Amino acid sequence: MKRALGMGEIMIQMNPTEKGALRFQTLFERHVAGSEANTIIQMQRLGIECSFLTSVGSDEFGKVILSTLRSEGVNTEGVIEDEKNPTAVYFVQRSYPVPEKTMVFYYRKGSAASNYGPQYLKDSYFDGIDLFLVSGITPALSDSCRDAAIKAIDMAKKHGALVAFDTNIRINLLKTKENALKTLEPFIRKADILFTGAGDLSMLFDGDLEKSKESMKKMADVAKLIVFKKGSGGVEAFTGGKRYSMPSYKVPVIDELGAGDACDGAFLASYLSGKSIEESLKYANVAGAITVSLKGDIEPLPDWKAIETFLNVHEA
Ligand code: KDG
C-alpha cells in the first residue's frame, strides 16, 4: 500500500443552513476542514495510507478535528495538542453576493496550527512515505509554519518521497501579489507534482494565462508534473512535454469549497496507485464534481465505489 503524509491547518467550518449574507444567518452546521487535510482524507478514502502533521488547540474543537482524522483512519501521531493557543474557526457565506460562489471569513490569527514549527518534525514520520503534501496556505500562516513546511519537504526528499505542492494562494494571509510570489517560489521550485489553477496563476502573473503557464513551467523546471485546475472548465496535466486535458462533469453547485482539494487527492491517489494520467485526471474531475454538489469539504469526498456509481450515471 502506498503511503502519504500531509501538513497544514485544520479548522472548524461553520456553514450556514441557508444561502445569503452572513449577517442574516442564525443556524449553522459545524464541519471540519482544511485544504491539505481535505486532500489527505480524499487519498485515504481511495486506499492510500495517510498521516498528518499539525497542531490543534487543546480544546473542544481540537478534539473534533482529532476524532475526524482518526475516524477516517489517518495516523495522528504527528498532531500536537497545543495548551496555549486555540483551534481556528471560519465561517462560510454561500451564494452571496455572487450566486453559486462561496466566500470565507477566518478567525485563525494566533491559532494553534499557526504556531506549529520545525521543532515538531521527527524523522520517523517520514519513514516509508511515498509522497509528502503541503500547500501555499501553510507557509502563509506564519514564519514557523513556513520553516516547518520547507524542512518537511527536505526531509521527505531525503526519504525518497515525491513532493506535491498546491499553490492555494490565500491573499488575505499573504497580503500582496509580490509577497505571494516570494513566499511560494521556493515551494514551487521544490515540487515534483505542482497543482495550481487559473485564479492563482492570474494572481501571480497578472492575469495573462499563456504567459503565466510559461512562467510557471520555467519556475517549476524541476516539477515532473503540473496539474492545472480550471474549475468547471475541467483539469489539465503537463508532463514529459505532453499536455493532457479532461473536461469537467456538469453538476449543480451547492458549495464549491474543497473541490480543488478533492481533485488533488483523487489525482494523487490514482497516480500513486499506478493509474495513467488520463485516468487520474478523470477521477480528479469526478471527486471535484461530487464535492461541489454538497456542503462541507470532507463529507462529500468519494471512495472508489462512489466514483464508480457517479461514472455509471454520468457516462451512461
Ligand atoms: O480548500 C478549501 C479550504 O480552503 C477551506 O475549507 C479552508 O483550508 C482552508 C483555507 O485556509 O482556506
Structure described in brief:
By secondary structure, this protein is an alpha/beta fold. It contains eleven helices and 13 strands. 38% of the residues lie in helices and 23% in strands.
Average pLDDT for all residues: 93
Please report the first level of CATH classification, the CATH class: Alpha Beta
Q: Please describe the biggest sheet, giving its number of strands, its sense, and whether it closes into a barrel.
A: 9 strands, mixed
Structural class: alpha/beta
What gyration radius follows from the Cα positions, in whole Å? 18 Å
CATH superfamily: Ribokinase
Q: In CATH terms, what is the architecture?
A: 3-Layer(aba) Sandwich
Percent of residues in helices: 25-40%
Strand sequence of the main sheet, in spatial order?
Answer: 5-4-1-8-9-10-11-12-13
Number of domains: 1
Describe this structure in words.
The protein is an alpha/beta fold. It has a single domain, classed as Ribokinase (UDP-N-acetylmuramoyl-L-alanine:D-glutamate ligase, 3-Layer(aba) Sandwich). 38% of the residues lie in helices and 23% in strands. The protein has 11 helices and 13 strands. The strands form 2 sheets. It has a 9-stranded mixed beta sheet with strand order 5-4-1-8-9-10-11-12-13, sandwiched between helices. Strands 3-2-6-7 form a 4-stranded mixed beta sheet. Helix 1 crosses helix 9 (259-272), helix 7 (198-204) packs across helix 8 and helix 9 runs antiparallel to helix 10 (277-292). Residues 13, 33-35, 38, 104, 137, 170, 257-258, 260-261, 297 line the site of 2-keto-3-deoxygluconate.
